[in-house]
Amino acid sequence: MHDFSEPHTPTEAPATGLDPSAQPGAVERGAATRQALLDTAERLFAEHGYGATSLRRITAAADANLAAVHYHFGSKQDLFVALFRRRVEPVNRQRVERLERLIAASAPQAPPLEDVLDVLVRPMLALRDEPGGEHFVRLVGRLFAEPGDHLTALREEFDEVRSKFLPVLAAQLPHLDREQLALRMQFTIGSLANVLAQAHRSNGPTCFPPFTTTPERVADELVAYAAAGLRAPVRRTPPDAPAAPNDTEPLQ
Amino acid sequence: MHDFSEPHTPTEAPATGLDPSAQPGAVERGAATRQALLDTAERLFAEHGYGATSLRRITAAADANLAAVHYHFGSKQDLFVALFRRRVEPVNRQRVERLERLIAASAPQAPPLEDVLDVLVRPMLALRDEPGGEHFVRLVGRLFAEPGDHLTALREEFDEVRSKFLPVLAAQLPHLDREQLALRMQFTIGSLANVLAQAHRSNGPTCFPPFTTTPERVADELVAYAAAGLRAPVRRTPPDAPAAPNDTEPLQ
DNA sequence: GTCTATAACATGATAGAC
DNA sequence: GTCTATCATGTTATAGAC
């Protein structure tokens, strides 16, 4: 449906100083609507989901024209990718840089588990404090659950991060084989994704207490939780032998 | 948009023995297409998402007529709710029943943490072994990340489960206050949801090793991981004092 | 760069014959 | 209970005036 190979460029020469239609301030206006589209789409995608958010709603809320999306980004998908990259690239760059700093600081030993996890989760959770970031983190939380149609390109960015973190974590977790480590990292990523996805429910529609929690506090808790979980010894005996071995009736 | 209040009923008297149009075997045919619709929709919703799956694709794949969905279920949303309830109600019933058995067995003490977690996660993971269940678990994984439009009614079913499990877990975790416990339970639910959502990628498109893991094995690992995470002492000092306090540049 | 108008098509839902 | 035909509305995307 879409190949993501060549990024969209508005006109033939938008990077030059020539104003495209000889109107003064046209280029500033263009940059303004472009940013308004990114911000508004980010909010609406987070609130209603990608499929349920039409370009009409986005452009209306951003006080822009329907055609502006296609001019600036090329398509709905490219708009999504653009707003996603805008936030996630600085985060992933921070993660990798800080990880390398950790490795250098503790060489030749591997860095402590808690520190590695901290570097993995804190930059993402910190997004919640940036303007508009509270919407974006919900999108990230959905990224891992959504089926693989329109965001495979984005998942690859996370794959790069994971490939750098996995060996460092493995060095501190020698009691886990490859499969166990991968599984427990799925748990850890799921914990992060879920807390990101629920971040907006600050006053809890469910039985959760009202969250006055700061991102820093959440990061502290998540690091403690994940480190303990990763270190947990491999389980031997399934403790609750099911009294009734299979008490599910056939589907109606 | 939709109120979920009164469920759909195909005709005035479909529960009676009267065949609706005097055709022999009509009622059996009706039940067959109804089931085919449920199974097919479950698979397609899991593979492409709710919004991206049209009724036309469902009915075509199920060898049924487009109007059959509206006859049997009333609407697309009601079809979704029906296929969801079909699977999740037995699971949640099992969870609550087994929990009560645990409580009775260990009274007056609270049951062991690992046993409670086992009862919470294993019935859901076991769905993967039922025919068609491998599609359904992906839907569950998405339920927690998806925004709150068309599945609030379903989330309430999980709220009931959580309200029964929370106090039992709290009894074994006296070092956590309400907020910490709620947060760590979000981590735990996220771990479960993520592993459910990724359950179909058995041979891993990413750097994960090929999973030959059975649901029982996953449940063992998850219980060990979550129990250790929940028991982890509250963290005191953020260990990695960020060298550069905030090295994020403003958004482009 | 912006905007109007419209193409080209997909969607969920429904009425009514069989 | 199944089917065809259709309604009303929505969607992304594009062409062309300004």
Automatic annotation (TrEMBL), chains A, B:
GO terms for molecular function: DNA-binding transcription factor activity; transcription cis-regulatory region binding. Pfam families: TetR_C_30 (PF17939), TetR_N (PF00440). Residues 54-73 bind DNA. Residues 31-91 form the HTH tetR-type domain. Keywords: DNA-binding, Transcription, Transcription regulation. It comes from the Bacteria. PROSITE patterns: HTH_TETR_1, HTH_TETR_2. The keyword GTP-binding does not apply. The keyword DNA-binding applies. Residues 1-25, 233-252 are annotated as: Disordered. InterPro entries: DNA-bd_HTH_TetR-type_CS, Homeodomain-like_sf, HTH-type_TetR-like_transc_reg, HTH_TetR, PsrA_TetR_C, Tet_transcr_reg_TetR-rel_C_sf. Transmembrane segments: none annotated. This is HTH-type transcriptional repressor AcnR.
